[in-house]
Amino acid sequence: MYRIKELANMSGISIRTLHYYDQINLLKPSRIEENGYRLYDKGAAGRLQQILFLKELDFPLNEIKRILDDPYFDEMEALQMQRKILVEKRDRLNSIIHSVDETIEAIRGGKEMDSNERLRPFDRSKLDEFQKKYEQEVRKRYGQTKAYEQSEKKRKSYRDDDFAKIEQERLAIFKKIVAVMDQNPGEEAVQDLIHEWRMHITRYHYECTIEIFRGLGEMYTADERFKENLNQIKNGLAEYMSEAMRIYGSHHNE
Fold first, then answer.
1. Which residues lie closer than 8 Å to 207 by C-beta, 6 or more apart?
2. pLDDT value of position 148
C-alpha cells in the first residue's frame, strides 16, 4: 500500500490532484485508515498509470473515467498499443538527436547540410498517425457505449431518495447472497439471486446483457477495487459471485 504522498512522489502529480481524482471518482483510495490516511494499492497505481497516459493523449477526465470504468477495458491491449506509441516517440527523439549531432559536426567542419536532412526528423506524421489510431480505437470500444449512455440518462433522473433506495436494494441482494455462500454457486437458489442482481442492474443502471454480466463477473476478481469492495461485505464474496455469474452466463444466451 502507498500513502497519498508516496503515490504523488512516484507519479509526479500533486496531492491536491489526487484528492480531486478522488472527489470525481476517477481514482479512489483503496482504503482510508481511521486517522484519515489515504492508502493506494498496486491496482490503484496501475489505474493512475492509465489515467496519466490517456491525459498525455489529451483525453478529458470524464472520458478517461468512462473508458477505465468500462467492464471490457483490456489493460494488456491498451499497454501494448501505448508501447507502440512510446517506441515511435523514442525513435523520433533519437532521430532529432542524431540530426542535432550531424548539424554540430557540419558547423564545426564548415560544411553545408541539406535542409531536408535538418528538418525531416521533426516530421510528426507517423507519430500522429499512431496516436490518432489509438484514440479512435479507444473511443470506439469504450468511449460511448450504449450501457454508459443508458446509465447516465437514468442517473440524471434520480433524486437523493432514489439513490438511497437503490443502495438499500443493492445491499439487500448482497446480504441474501452472503446467506447462501455455503452452497455451491451453481445451485438454483444461488442462481436465482444472481438473476436478481442482474435485473437490479438493468432496472436502475443499464440493460445488463449476458455479455456485459459475464464481464462484470470477471471484473469482480480481476479488478482489486471491485474485489476489495465486495470482500468488505463478506470475505470471499467477490470470488463467490464471480463464479456464480460465470455459471449463470454459461446457462443463458441473449
1. 146, 147, 150
2. 60
Amino acid at 89: K
User: Is 1.10.490.50 the CATH classification of the domain at 146-251?
Assistant: yes
2-52: CATH number: 1.10.1660.10
C-alpha cell at 22: 478522488
| Model pTM above 0.90 | no
Are 252 and 234 in contact by the 8 Å Cβ rule? The answer is no
> Which cell numbers hold the place of 179?
446467506
Smallest CA-to-CA distance from 146 within 199, 204, 206 is with 206
In the chain, domain spans: 2-52, 75-143, 146-251
Q: Work out the burial of residue 111: count CB atoms within 10 Å of its CB; fewer than 13 is exposed, 13-18 middle, 19 or more buried.
A: exposed
pLDDT mean for each 10 residues of the chain (254 residues):
90 88 88 86 89 79 79 73 79 84 82 70 67 63 61 76 87 94 94 94 87 85 77 92 92 72
Distance of CA 123 to the CA centre of its chain: 32
Q: What's the pLDDT at 152? A: 67
Do 146-251 and 2-52 have the same topology in CATH? no
- Dihedral sign of CA atoms 214, 215, 218, 221 in order: negative
